[in-house]
Amino acid sequence: MRISAVVSERTMTRHRLFLCLGILSATSSACSMVVDSERVQCKTASDCTSRGPAYAGNVCTDSVCRPDPTWACLNEQNTDDVASGTVHVVFTGADLLSQKPLPGISLTLCAKLDADCQLPIAQYQSNQAGQLDVEMPAGFDGYFQTEGDGIYPTLFFPPNTRKQRASSTLPMVPANFFGGMFSGIGASVSADRTVIMTTALDCLGRPAAGMVLSSDETDESTTMYFLQGGLPSKTAPTTDDSGAGGFVNIKTGGAVITSAIAATNRVVGTVAVQTRPGHLTMVLVLPSGS
Question: Are 172 and 102 in contact (CB under 8 A)?
Answer without folding.
Answer: yes
